[in-house]
Design a protein that fits this description.
Blueprint (H helix, E strand, L loop, with lengths): L2 H7 L5 H10 L7 H15 L2 H11 L5 H27 L13 H4 L5 H15 L2 H13 L4 H34 L1
Length: 182
């Protein structure tokens, strides 16, 4: 499945999402690696097989094997960290002072520039709704020299990819109802 196939799978009511997907696929504020890695990490975080297949088919060729591995690793590690740190943030108390005791070695050695890995982690954290992780990764990318525009672009990609997945999941859930009505 290609990006065009994915856009064509979106219903008419999601025209804005389709247009955003097309525009963001060439977002100029990000490097090719930052943009492609953000798309891949966001697609994996979306948890939709069709979206992931189409996005990876489109953007993986724009990444080195190391960068593709790192984008996947960002989605994976944030899948764990976003749950844990969202809990810590919501509950408060002494949990924030306790060691997580979770392996996170890839964060220290992602195999790509720190700024890019942190940007992908930020995008996934935005999808997963972890305020503590979003704040931490936003500070990290800004400290690495990324601009607010670049941060916003990555989060716009994450939001749009998530919306594509949500729309397609919703349409799939409605198909049995439409068939029963026929």
């Amino acid at each position: 499945m290609s990006l065009d196939t994915l856009k064509n799978a979106l219903p008419d009511y999601a025209k804005d999402i389709k247009l955003n997907l097309g525009t963001l696929s060439t977002e100029p504020s990000l490097t090719t690696q930052q943009r492609a890695g953000t798309f891949v990490a966001a697609a994996l975080a979306s948890r939709n097989a069709d979206v992931t297949a189409a996005i990876v088919a489109e953007f993986a060729p724009q990444l080195s094997p190391e960068a593709l591995h790192a984008a996947k690793a960002a989605a994976s590690i944030m899948g764990m960290n976003n749950v844990y740190y969202r809990f810590v943030h919501m509950v408060g108390g002494d949990y924030a002072n306790m060691p997580a005791k979770l392996r996170m070695n890839v964060i220290g050695r992602p195999g790509v520039e720190k700024a890019d890995f942190e940007l992908w982690s930020l995008a996934v954290s935005a999808i997963n709704g972890c305020a503590m992780c979003v704040e931490s990764h936003e500070r990290a990318v800004r400290a690495e020299g990324l601009t607010q525009e670049q941060v916003q672009s990555a989060v716009r990609i994450a939001a749009t990819v998530h919306a594509v997945a949500a729309t397609l999941d919703g349409e799939a859930a409605l198909q049995p109802l439409a068939q029963a009505a026929e």
